[in-house]
Design goal:
124 residues, alpha/beta, Rossmann fold, six-stranded mixed sheet, 40% helix
Length: 124
């Protein structure tokens, strides 16, 4: 899976993902630690990467854009230890590859994983 890790995700997580065979880059690796959220989404879309973040702004930006890419995985965990994030992310990648490839917002909380396919339909 091609992944772009935002600043709220540890660099160690991106490194571990690469060790597992994923094409994962962190904003720090790209010298983009201060990039705006829209710039990050544009880069992910251009490079066909899934954004991995701890920042809800990404879900809002993708949802209101009406776009079907990029997919976004958002972590809403109380404790963001790299090994914990990695374990949850690997499980999501394995279970939801089709959704992530097609375009989805995946929210990971303590209790559940929620998937919304893109583009997001407005609530009636």
């Amino acid at each position: 899976m091609r992944l772009l890790c935002d600043m709220g995700i540890a660099v160690a997580t991106a490194t571990a993902l690469r060790d597992l065979g994923h094409d994962a880059v962190h904003l720090v690796d790209l010298g983009l630690s201060r990039a705006a959220d829209r710039e990050i989404l544009d880069l992910a879309r251009a490079e066909k990467r899934v954004v991995v973040a701890h920042d809800l702004d990404f879900t809002d930006l993708v949802a209101v854009s009406g776009a079907s890419t990029p997919s976004v995985v958002i972590f809403r965990l109380r404790v963001m230890r790299p090994e914990r994030v990695l374990a949850r992310l690997v499980a999501v990648i394995e279970a939801l590859t089709t959704d992530l490839d097609a375009g989805a917002i995946v929210t990971i909380t303590e209790a559940l994983t929620r998937v919304r396919r893109l583009p997001v339909s407005p609530d009636p």
